[in-house]
């Protein structure tokens, strides 16, 4: 399937496709680490430490490798707010493929520079991802390029699903993922649903096209401006929409202020630099209960100026002090010890006047710091 084709009725993505993607990618992309954010009570899958600073390189690289297996050597063009473009540029550089990326004019300079660094052609067009996507489709039709969607492509979805396969060893009960077009959520859900893991999507208020689509709301709305530019999508994927209708457990919509505070707390408390979309899943996770939950930090390509402004403007609430959960020992274990055992033998004499017995506080077997 070429990218954004609306005809996805016959297209299927299976768990076997995700496993095949993992086999292709392991030569190029080592697994990203997990980090336990104790103050949030949540594990973090650090895709901000991925090649090019985002999970998007997984799908782009898998798509190019799968195309090479099929004998498709066309130049590739893609529209992107930044991270898919960087992932495609890096993958094309590694494999010797010609790549063109179309990005909105307002894309972060960090991401534009990252694309140019790997030698891909950069075209800036339009003021949103959807305008850039329409222009990329036009160029693809005119020049015979392969149009590679940032999310609505089976090879891309399978590549993003390898994030879920790497999470399987953690044995989470809940995994939270940001949703723009839905490629990451579809791939992760495909990889983990057979294990009984709940997969919950995260979107920003006013930037929730997938939630509205899954709820059957007709029509498209222009998404609001948001710090999470990576998920600012007006028209979510057709293929991903169909998959998420079957696989996704829920979508949590967070306020912009919650997102900004979470990003700053991540930087100050966990020393993790995330872009807006990268902090989105964790912001949603604060509303989700789970014994062993994990949020995907999807990317870390944040402009230094934006981070400096956030650190200056946002004053996160001080974290609550940890509660102490105390388990008392049985009564006989905390009884008053015999006075004789407290007196050294050299000091023992008839003239020795022992102090009156005092109450002994119950011993605490274990003190556990539990963070709210």
TrEMBL record:
<keyword id="KW-0663">Pyridoxal phosphate</keyword>
<dbReference type="GO" id="GO:0006567">
    <property type="term" value="P:L-threonine catabolic process"/>
</dbReference>
<protein>
    <submittedName>
        <fullName>L-threonine ammonia-lyase</fullName>
    </submittedName>
</protein>
<dbReference type="GO" id="GO:0006565">
    <property type="term" value="P:L-serine catabolic process"/>
</dbReference>
<dbReference type="GO" id="GO:0009097">
    <property type="term" value="P:isoleucine biosynthetic process"/>
</dbReference>
<keyword id="KW-0456">Lyase</keyword>
<dbReference type="Pfam" id="PF00291">
    <property type="entry name" value="PALP"/>
</dbReference>
<dbReference type="InterPro" id="IPR036052">
    <property type="entry name" value="TrpB-like_PALP_sf"/>
</dbReference>
<dbReference type="GO" id="GO:0003941">
    <property type="term" value="F:L-serine ammonia-lyase activity"/>
</dbReference>
<dbReference type="InterPro" id="IPR050147">
    <property type="entry name" value="Ser/Thr_Dehydratase"/>
</dbReference>
<feature type="region of interest" description="Disordered">
    <location>
        <begin position="349"/>
        <end position="372"/>
    </location>
</feature>
<comment type="similarity">
    <text>Belongs to the serine/threonine dehydratase family.</text>
</comment>
<dbReference type="InterPro" id="IPR001926">
    <property type="entry name" value="TrpB-like_PALP"/>
</dbReference>
<feature type="domain" description="Tryptophan synthase beta chain-like PALP">
    <location>
        <begin position="30"/>
        <end position="291"/>
    </location>
</feature>
<dbReference type="GO" id="GO:0004794">
    <property type="term" value="F:threonine deaminase activity"/>
</dbReference>
